[in-house]
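Lecture notes, unit on binding sites. The following record was shown on slide 14. It pairs a sequence with zinc ion.
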Amino acid sequence: MRRSLLFIFSLLVFGGGIFFTSAQPVRQTWKAGVSEVIITPRHSMWMAGYGGRDKPSEGTLHDLRAKALALEDISGNRAVLVTTDLLGFPKGMSDRIRDRLNKEYGLTKARVILNSSHTHTGPVLADALYDIYPLDENELRKIEAYSAELEDKIVELTGRALDGMKPAKVFANNGVVRFQVNRRNNSEALIDRLTGLNGPNDYAVPVIKVEDTGGKLFAIAFGYACHSTVLSFYKWSGDYPGFAQLELEKSYPGATALFFQGAGADMNPLPRKTVELARQYGRELAAAVDRVLNEEMTELEPVIVCNYDEVELSITGIPDEKELAKMADNSTGYNQKWAKRNLDELKSGGKLITSYPYPVQLWQLGNRQIVALGGELVVDYAIRLKQLFGHQLFVMGYSNDVMSYIPSARILREGGYEGASGQIVYGLPGMWGADIETKIIQKILDLAEESGIPVQEAKLIESAR
Ligand SMILES: [Zn+2]
């Protein structure tokens, strides 16, 4: 009796299983592939991010890496996230890489995100922030050679991620970690004595988990919004994101960890300046990711929608020839280099740019939206976008082109480094127009409408009318 019941039971279970499997369409899963390449310069060269350095690099703390996560949905739509231990891609380089990705793999700009961790212990890239570094011909040649090689490596890296795609499950959720400090509204010098910290902040740790169909974790993409400026010495390193990635890869052998930078332009990891602190923040971030990986995550339906556009942001307060000449005479350092360069441009019959094509990107993976924006994005954007799209939204800054700081209307009014003087550091000829935030948000809303993505605030406003 017992045996026959067992037989009926097994028939139900296994027979049902076969029926269930054969009833499925050909493929109802994601395909995903991941790849990485070491991009540590082979020779000593100039380091990016700080104008005060007076010599090229001296050694390596840990390797710099570029990584790619390729995803394909059930309709064959593809999207590739490239993350890098670099300060930020300048436009020329990003355009060249994305052109090649389009030609070689059919990936349009909408389908590629080129993000950088904003490490300040990585190499200077071609045509990026040249005014602030004391570069001679020899150093410039090294930068150009490294940059050309890096472009090849990223194209090849993307190809490998696409080639390696296999059936996968993709999950997403946000975690939290609180080592970012709003650097505009708290004194770094007093950080050890402050009993409370001023915001605004966004402590979210967005996490994407990718497993094979057997449940083995093979890719972890995660982010945080905070400057990678714990370290400012002369050794190559990925700063705290470098440590976070290494830590996760140690905890999950066989998995590749990819860090993307969020809206961290006005956030610093404080206190800072020691390798031990960089390691501590890396471990804290890895622990936050680890917690998300081990709790229940939202499984994403295998559907990708990608949208991208560039919005012309106006540049105002551009000095004329007389003002530039005065500044060239009366200033020093990078201010003087900036003034002289712009003056030369005008004298040789050229024009200074009055607007800039700013990259705005919106992905939807299953029901999860990701907004990827260019430049050094301040935290106000993440806060505002989460009001619009919901708190589960993933926000990336430092994506596709890092041309300058991107202040909100508030920070533009307040001025300071992120609101005003950072423009000269980046070599732009003037300030951003007062409508910068309105234009960027409007473009994201336009992309959301094109993608059929609902917007919460718009709904609220409509229902209030
Ligand atoms: Zn920065």
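Take-home: The radius of gyration is 24 Å.
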